[in-house]
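User: Hey, my collaborator sent me this sequence without any context and asked if I could get a structure. I don't really work with proteins. Can you help?
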Amino acid sequence: MTTALVMAGGRGERMRASGMATPKPLVTIGGMTLLEHNLLALLQSGMRDIVVATPGHSPEIAAFVLGPCRALVSDRGGELRLYEEQQPLGNIGAAAEVECRGPELLVVFADNLTTLDLAAGVRHHRQAEAALTLAVHVEPFRIPFGEVEVRDGMIVAYTEKPEHRVLVSSGVMVLGPAAIARIPRGQATGISWLANRLLAVGARVAALPHDSPWIDVNDLAAAEGAVRLLSGQAAATRPAAGA
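Assistant: No problem. I've predicted the 3D structure and written it out in structure-token form, which is a compact way to encode the shape of the chain:
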């Protein structure tokens, strides 16, 4: 059995700036909160042991987890546990604090939505015999300025507002015992630090490339994009990771 951990952080700066005061995990998309969407995705992937980590300063998130979310999971034959961070633990620190009841820990972020096959991610992690597996995809970024190329002090190319494709982490990861053991207890820890620490000691860090629809809900525009994703209108032509 794989234990799944949902990282349910509080309010984001970009979301507040865009006029949304609701904590990100509780933002409603298509009649359901982001947190519930992620729980359903885990349940549909066969996960039945689920932990939600919430900030200690966000009692409204904890109350929602213990109420509607626990009922949602229980009704589908699963068990939902709550872990409240008494101090900020970064975006992966809670993985060292929760009880992992299986050979690995599947971690997702509550403010992301994706159609990625989560169970396939766990299988990929096992087959790769990795300490840590990160789902990755190609994300297009448009630069809002003119980009120039200079050689020997002379302009040789000028591209107006070019779009670059960058391979990024999808916020879905699988941690084995070796990765969890590397996380310092009671300290704020980021997934980038953990990945680099594992690489430094020669541990295997696997990539799970995918082209599934994915969105990080950080502002009102992203929330509108999430509605399109859930309604099946999201573009299915995301460049394949590594392409």
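In plain terms: The two ends are 34 Å apart (CA to CA). You can pass these tokens on to your collaborator as they are.
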